[in-house]
Design brief:
35% of the residues lie in helices and 28% in strands. By secondary structure, it is α/β, with parallel strands linked by helices. It is globular.
Protein backbone atom coordinates (compact mmCIF):
# COMPACT_ATOMS: atom_id res chain seq x y z
CA UNK A 1 0.00 0.00 0.00
CA UNK A 2 2.73 2.50 0.97
CA UNK A 3 4.80 1.45 -2.05
CA UNK A 4 1.77 2.08 -4.27
CA UNK A 5 1.26 5.56 -2.81
CA UNK A 6 4.95 6.41 -3.22
CA UNK A 7 4.89 5.31 -6.87
CA UNK A 8 1.77 7.39 -7.55
CA UNK A 9 3.35 10.40 -5.85
CA UNK A 10 6.56 10.01 -7.85
CA UNK A 11 4.60 9.71 -11.10
CA UNK A 12 2.51 12.80 -10.27
CA UNK A 13 5.71 14.70 -9.52
CA UNK A 14 7.24 13.69 -12.86
CA UNK A 15 4.19 15.00 -14.69
CA UNK A 16 4.89 18.43 -13.24
CA UNK A 17 8.53 18.53 -14.41
CA UNK A 18 7.80 19.84 -17.93
CA UNK A 19 5.77 22.69 -16.42
CA UNK A 20 8.64 23.58 -14.09
CA UNK A 21 11.12 23.40 -16.95
CA UNK A 22 8.98 25.69 -19.07
CA UNK A 23 8.64 28.18 -16.22
CA UNK A 24 12.42 28.21 -15.76
CA UNK A 25 13.16 28.93 -19.45
CA UNK A 26 14.77 32.36 -19.78
CA UNK A 27 12.57 34.95 -21.47
CA UNK A 28 14.28 37.34 -23.87
CA UNK A 29 12.50 40.47 -25.04
CA UNK A 30 13.73 41.40 -28.52
CA UNK A 31 13.25 44.87 -29.97
CA UNK A 32 13.49 44.83 -33.77
CA UNK A 33 11.95 46.27 -36.92
CA UNK A 34 9.06 44.40 -38.52
CA UNK A 35 10.91 43.92 -41.81
CA UNK A 36 14.17 42.45 -40.49
CA UNK A 37 14.57 38.88 -41.69
CA UNK A 38 17.85 38.14 -39.90
CA UNK A 39 16.29 39.19 -36.58
CA UNK A 40 13.56 36.60 -37.11
CA UNK A 41 16.20 33.97 -37.88
CA UNK A 42 18.10 34.86 -34.68
CA UNK A 43 14.86 34.51 -32.73
CA UNK A 44 14.40 31.02 -34.21
CA UNK A 45 17.97 30.20 -33.08
CA UNK A 46 17.15 31.32 -29.53
CA UNK A 47 13.91 29.34 -29.42
CA UNK A 48 15.65 26.22 -30.76
CA UNK A 49 18.08 26.59 -27.86
CA UNK A 50 15.46 26.75 -25.12
CA UNK A 51 14.73 30.45 -24.80
CA UNK A 52 11.27 31.95 -24.75
CA UNK A 53 11.24 35.05 -26.96
CA UNK A 54 8.89 38.00 -26.84
CA UNK A 55 9.58 39.91 -30.04
CA UNK A 56 8.44 43.50 -30.25
CA UNK A 57 8.44 45.33 -33.56
CA UNK A 58 9.53 48.91 -32.99
CA UNK A 59 10.33 51.81 -35.31
CA UNK A 60 13.78 52.54 -33.87
CA UNK A 61 15.55 49.60 -32.22
CA UNK A 62 18.56 51.87 -31.56
CA UNK A 63 16.52 53.61 -28.84
CA UNK A 64 16.41 50.34 -26.89
CA UNK A 65 20.17 49.87 -27.32
CA UNK A 66 20.66 53.34 -25.85
CA UNK A 67 18.27 52.64 -22.96
CA UNK A 68 20.23 49.46 -22.20
CA UNK A 69 23.47 51.43 -22.06
CA UNK A 70 25.08 49.75 -25.06
CA UNK A 71 27.35 52.15 -27.00
CA UNK A 72 26.24 52.93 -30.57
CA UNK A 73 29.60 51.68 -31.87
CA UNK A 74 28.49 48.18 -30.82
CA UNK A 75 25.15 48.46 -32.61
CA UNK A 76 23.44 45.84 -34.68
CA UNK A 77 19.91 45.38 -35.99
CA UNK A 78 18.16 44.36 -32.75
CA UNK A 79 18.49 44.56 -28.98
CA UNK A 80 17.39 41.91 -26.51
CA UNK A 81 16.90 42.04 -22.77
CA UNK A 82 17.13 39.00 -20.51
CA UNK A 83 17.39 38.92 -16.71
CA UNK A 84 18.67 42.50 -16.61
CA UNK A 85 21.28 42.02 -19.34
CA UNK A 86 21.30 43.60 -22.79
CA UNK A 87 21.99 41.35 -25.78
CA UNK A 88 22.98 43.38 -28.82
CA UNK A 89 23.06 41.73 -32.22
CA UNK A 90 23.54 38.13 -33.27
CA UNK A 91 24.91 36.68 -30.04
CA UNK A 92 24.91 32.85 -29.95
CA UNK A 93 22.45 31.30 -27.48
CA UNK A 94 25.29 29.36 -25.81
CA UNK A 95 27.01 32.63 -24.86
CA UNK A 96 23.77 34.06 -23.45
CA UNK A 97 23.33 30.91 -21.34
CA UNK A 98 26.93 31.25 -20.09
CA UNK A 99 26.30 34.91 -19.22
CA UNK A 100 23.21 33.94 -17.23
CA UNK A 101 25.17 31.24 -15.38
CA UNK A 102 28.19 33.45 -14.62
CA UNK A 103 26.17 36.58 -13.75
CA UNK A 104 29.02 39.07 -14.26
CA UNK A 105 28.57 42.68 -13.23
CA UNK A 106 28.14 44.01 -16.76
CA UNK A 107 25.59 45.53 -19.12
CA UNK A 108 25.51 42.50 -21.39
CA UNK A 109 26.86 41.00 -24.59
CA UNK A 110 27.24 42.42 -28.09
CA UNK A 111 28.12 41.23 -31.56
CA UNK A 112 28.66 44.49 -33.44
CA UNK A 113 27.52 44.83 -37.05
CA UNK A 114 26.18 41.68 -38.64
CA UNK A 115 28.96 39.12 -39.24
CA UNK A 116 28.27 36.40 -41.77
CA UNK A 117 28.03 33.03 -40.07
CA UNK A 118 26.70 34.33 -36.76
CA UNK A 119 23.30 32.94 -35.63
CA UNK A 120 20.59 34.27 -37.92
CA UNK A 121 23.06 35.25 -40.64
CA UNK A 122 24.07 31.86 -41.89
CA UNK A 123 25.26 31.84 -45.47
CA UNK A 124 27.93 30.68 -47.90
CA UNK A 125 30.80 31.72 -45.61
CA UNK A 126 31.63 32.16 -41.94
CA UNK A 127 33.50 35.29 -40.94
CA UNK A 128 35.48 35.44 -37.72
CA UNK A 129 33.81 37.58 -35.07
CA UNK A 130 33.91 38.39 -31.38
CA UNK A 131 31.18 38.33 -28.79
CA UNK A 132 31.98 41.25 -26.52
CA UNK A 133 31.18 41.61 -22.83
CA UNK A 134 30.02 45.18 -22.32
CA UNK A 135 31.19 46.37 -18.92
CA UNK A 136 29.12 48.75 -16.80
CA UNK A 137 31.41 51.65 -17.78
CA UNK A 138 30.81 50.94 -21.50
CA UNK A 139 34.21 49.37 -22.14
CA UNK A 140 34.40 45.92 -23.69
CA UNK A 141 36.42 42.75 -23.58
CA UNK A 142 36.24 39.65 -25.74
CA UNK A 143 33.86 37.15 -24.19
CA UNK A 144 34.27 34.57 -26.94
CA UNK A 145 35.97 34.51 -30.34
CA UNK A 146 34.51 32.60 -33.29
CA UNK A 147 36.58 31.58 -36.32
Amino acid sequence: MIKHLLLRGAFAGMLGLPVLAMAAAPVIEVFKTASCGCCSEWIKHLEANGFTVRAKNVEMPAQYRKLAGIPDALGSCHTGMVNGYAIEGHVPASDIKQLLRDKPKARGLAVPAMPMGSPGIEGPRKDAYDVLLVENNGSTKVYKHYK
